[in-house]
Amino acid sequence: MAAARRHKRVAASQPGFLPLKSDLDGNSSDIKRRKRVNKNKKKNWNKYSDIQDVEEFLEDVRLQEKAVGGLIAEKPDDSLFFVDTGEKDKDTQPQTTVKKGKRSKPLRIDLILRPDSLIPAPKNVLAFQQPNAKKQRRMAEKAAKLAAMGVVPRREKLLQLRRAAAASGLSDKEKPVANNNPERAFYDLWSAGAPETADPYYLEQTKKKLVKRPDRLNEKPSVLPAIEVVAPGASYNPDFFSHQDLLREAHEVEVKKLKAEEKLKRQLAVNEDIATKESNFKEQVEGLIEEGDSEPEEPEGDAEDTVIGPTATQEKKTEKERKKEKAQRIKELQTKAERQKIDKQQQLFQLRSIRSDLKKQEQRTKMRQAQRKAKQEAQKSMPRRLGRLKFQAPDLDIQLSDELAGSLRSLKPEGSILKDRFKSLQKRNLIEPRERAKFKRKYKLKYTEKRAFREIQ
């Protein structure tokens, strides 16, 4: 009983609390004596705990919020009290009458639907949520920070430039010519299409105008011509010296091929030392025959002279020796610093040599740039590596001196135009080098004898 009264006193003594009901301090006779139970067990906490005073306190708080809109103790005096100074003037009274002498009253349905609670409705969180709100807030903060620094975003800058270009275009545009002017330009009704007068940016975004092709795509991958003129020695009736030059060139190509084959043979050659009967027998009996009964000689000197481990312990230095070493180190550092100072002073007298070295370095740089540029120009006429295979130049179509024909009538056709064009495309970096696909059967062929053929046999 004492505990219940104490709880009520605590609830009533809360700051800012004015109860609407004055029955907190009831008679002691109304309060029944509680049963003494053990509160150490969890099952008895809610069963035998008296929280009536707390519930009454919370109910009174809810009643105040519903009726007044908050705690009465927190409300100002103007909202709770007013000064009665008599009847109000008729002029100041609001004109709420519909008919003369009668005051308008709200309908009963409006009174029923009118909320009787001053507690505001709960805020709908989902109605105020926005997708990516955190990201947009971060972007807005970053834009405000950049605007304070004077940095304009790229999209805003492009918009300003586009507006400025449109404004300048409109100002420079001439006035349209009247239809009845005989000097106006002739309009072809059957022309390919009417000129576009819309904004170029709008045309690009709506795919009505093609994007400008980059200049690098218009460059040829190779400077070689589509059709190369063969050497003069390849004619059906060539000059002697031109024919010999062509034969020499073909000879050098064949020599390179032979050298490459010989090099490959040398690398893949097997050791020519062949095993004989004697070598096989010697290998089999090796380790079975004792070469001598003499024992290995012992090394000179006693075993006691052999030192295992550290030869000697490091002796501790005296104070005098340590001071001497420290002075020596300080002297070396001073000598090194003086030497560096002298070297810096000597550099002043080497300005001419430094200037000449700089000139030589600039000349070497210019020479390397010229070499690099020449190398790049030479690579433009060379086939690049476009695939897993390297480009292999085709064999030269030549005829020996005794195979030359004296006239076009007796000339025999050599080579293939299709292969020549195919190699030309590879050489000009238009297609990658390729090789003929190898035919491979998925299933092996199966031979069977037909019944009719078997009967004939």
UniProtKB/TrEMBL annotation:
GO terms for molecular function: 5S rRNA binding. Residues 1-10, 32-43 have a biased composition (Basic residues). It is found in: Nucleus, Nucleolus; Nucleus, Nucleoplasm. Keywords: Nucleus, Ribosome biogenesis. InterPro entries: Nop53/GLTSCR2. Residues 288-305 have a biased composition (Acidic residues). One of its GO terms (biological process) is ribosomal large subunit assembly. Residues 1-43, 84-103, 279-387 are annotated as: Disordered. One of its GO terms (cellular component) is nucleolus. Pfam families: Nop53 (PF07767). Residues 314-344, 354-365 have a biased composition (Basic and acidic residues). May play a role in ribosome biogenesis. Belongs to the NOP53 family. This is Ribosome biogenesis protein NOP53. It comes from Culter alburnus. The lineage of its organism: Eukaryota, Metazoa, Chordata, Craniata, Vertebrata.
